[in-house]
Each structure stands twice: as C-alpha cells, then as structure tokens.
Amino acid sequence: MDNRVSAGAAANAFERARFTGTASEYFGIWIVNVLLTIVTLGIYSAWAKVRRNRYFYGNTVLLDRSFEYHATGMQIFIGRLIVFAFLVVVNILAAIHPLFSLVTTILVLIALPWLIVRGIRFNARVTSYRNVRFDFTGSAGGAFVSVMLGSLVAVLSLGLLAPFASRWLNRYIFNNLRYGNRPFDTDPKLGALYGALVIPAVMVVLGAVVLSALIAIIVVGIQASDASSVESDPLIFMVVSGMYLVVFGLIIIYGLAGLIYRAAVHNIVWSSTRIDGRHVLRSDLSRARYAWIAISNVVVTVLTLGLMRPWAAVRLARYVTEHTAIRIEGEIGEVFAQFEASGTAVGSEYISMEGLDFGF
C-alpha cells in the first residue's frame, strides 16, 4: 500500500496512517510527568496521562489530519478518587464481618462491568478526528460477557477457546463504537482466529516439552546423587538455577506466544472492520516484527533503568500506526463533510456533565 493517496483515488486505495512523534520530543514530556508524579505522591499521574495521550493522539495522522484528545486531568483524577473510595469502603466492610466479604465480592462483580463500560465510553467520547467525536454505546451486560466471562473461558480452557473470547471482546467493542453517529462493525471469522492460534499453540507445546525435559533431568540428577551429597552446595545451586530457568522460560514462551497471537488477532479484527458499512480498515502487522519490538523495548527499558521508555513507546506506536490503513469509499471531502454534519456535537455535553474516567 502506498503511504499517500490522492482524494480522487481514495475510493480504490488504502491510505496508511502516520506517526510523526519522536523519542526526543516525548522524552521531555515523559520526564516531567515522572518527576511531578513522584513529587505529588502520584496525584499528578492523572494530568500526566492527559499530556501523554495528547502527544500520541496529536501525532497520529490519517489523511493529513491528526486525532485529538479532549480529557482533562481533573476528570481522570476525580474518577480515580471515586474508584479508590469504593475500594476502601469494600475493604472496610470485609474487615468488619466475614459475611460482608461475600457482599463486597458481589458488589465488585457488579461494579466491574459498569466501570469497564464507563472507561471505554469516556476514552471514545474524549477522542475526536476532524472535529467529530467518537462514542461508545455498549452495555454493562455486554462487558460482563465479552470481557469478564470471555477472559474466564480463555483461561479455564488453557487457551483453546481464546479465539472465541477474542471474537466476543472485539465484536463488543467495535460493534458499539461510533464515529459521530456512524457505526463501526466487525465480524472476524472464527476460523481465521483459530489460524492465528496455531503458531502460538505450537510454541507453547514445544516449550512445555523442553522445559519438562529440563525438569526431568534435574529430578534424575537429584535421585542419582547419594544422600550425603543431596545438601551439597553444587547440587543446591543446580536445583535452584534449574527452577529459575524453568520459570523464566515459561514467562518468555508464554509472553512471546501471546504477542504473536495478539498481533495476528489485531490484523484479523481491524481488517474485518468497516465504518458506516463501507469504509474499510486494514492492519498488516508482521507478527515476528511486532513481537521483536515489544520484547526488545522491555529489555532496553530495563537495562537503561527506564530512561529509554519514551523511545520504546514511540517506536511501538510508530510501527502499529504505520501498519494501519483505511479505504474511503467516495470523495474524501464529501464523506467527512457528512461525518462532521452528523457528529460535531457528540461529546461536548458529556464532557461538561458526566465525563469522568474510571480507568488507570
């Protein structure tokens, strides 16, 4: 796909998004955010989130126009205070009497889907593109099924039903998302999602076999040792080292498999998504490249004690953004004029009346 497409050709070609931010620019924002968050004992983190999002949204460019983030730090701070107060009350009730533990558990289960919906809706409504706000119309019941129940199904099935969970989650989010009053819709095929699971599943199985063999070697080595040497320093060192190696290996294998699956699902879902029934999205992330960027970002960030975090964030944002595209059916000016006519007022009342972010 070409990076630039003229308005007249947009009906037949995809236009890639671009990310124009740089690590050096974001470092200045990031370091101030970190220092002020530390000095204010975490209070400034709400305003730090706003500054971070405004930078990344403002540098995400599609069809020569960038996105905008309209939330304020106070909205996020108040939302966090409400969540914190709720958790404090829940813990106090649980400490007063054991019976309250059951009640508080039920309250949390009831509150979580509602908080999830509020968080998604808030983030949608404080985001705009070409002066048109996004919106989210999902229900708490839908969040319970797609997010909480879906996650439980994926875990209890040891990942075998993860494609079902991925489909539920993404259909819930995208099919309730609006740009102005124009709906998004997506219908990722279950077969494609299971295809995305093949490589990660093979990695997990092979990794489990190798690690099991390593555990077996350690056990055999211990059994082969005589009683007098069981507590010897070399043997203890070998056992402890082997245990750490197994745990570290599991983390690496599951992490890498998860990243590969995530990139594949991202491609499938986004490439199955349309806006207003006719404008098509596309994602063409390389699973290997995405996993490499994510893992190397973590390694570099850890080795530099966090100082390279801005570079890592910009690097990942640029890769994902530049492998996302849209195909507009029709003349771009006319299409977005229709969008603007339908959506300019969306979100303004929400911001002033009830816009609180309950996420972190």
- Taken in chain order, the helices and strands follow as EEHHEEHHEEHHEEHHEEHHEHH
Helical content class = 55-70%
β-strand amount: 5-15%
How are strands sequenced across the largest beta sheet?
A: 1-11-10-9-8-7-6-5-4-3-2
Q: Averaged pLDDT, please? A: 85
Unreliable residue stretches: 1-11, 344-354
Derived structural class: alpha+beta
Categorize the overall geometry: globular
Radius of gyration equals: 24 Å
N-to-C span: 36 Å
Please give the number of β-strands: 11
| Largest β sheet strand count, sense and barrel closure | 11 strands, antiparallel
Q: Overview of this structure, please?
A:
There is one protein chain. This protein is an alpha+beta fold. It has a domain of 37 residues. It is 65% helix and 11% strand. It has twelve helices and eleven strands. Strands 1-11-10-9-8-7-6-5-4-3-2 form an eleven-stranded antiparallel β-sheet. Strand 7 and strand 8 form a beta hairpin. Helix 3 runs antiparallel to helix 4. The two termini are 36 Å apart. The N terminus is likely disordered.
Which features characterize this protein?
single chain, 360 residues, alpha+beta, 12 helices, 65% helix
Topology (SSEs and partners):
Blueprint: E1 15-16, E2 18-19, H1 23-39, H2 45-58, E3 60-62, E4 65-69, H3 73-96, H4 98-125, E5 127-129, E6 132-136, H5 140-156, H6 162-174, E7 177-179, E8 182-186, H7 190-224, H8 233-270, E9 273-275, E10 279-283, H9 287-303, H10 309-322, E11 324-327, H11 332-343, H12 348-353
Antiparallel strand pairs: 1-11, 2-3, 3-4, 4-5, 5-6, 6-7, 7-8, 8-9, 9-10, 10-11
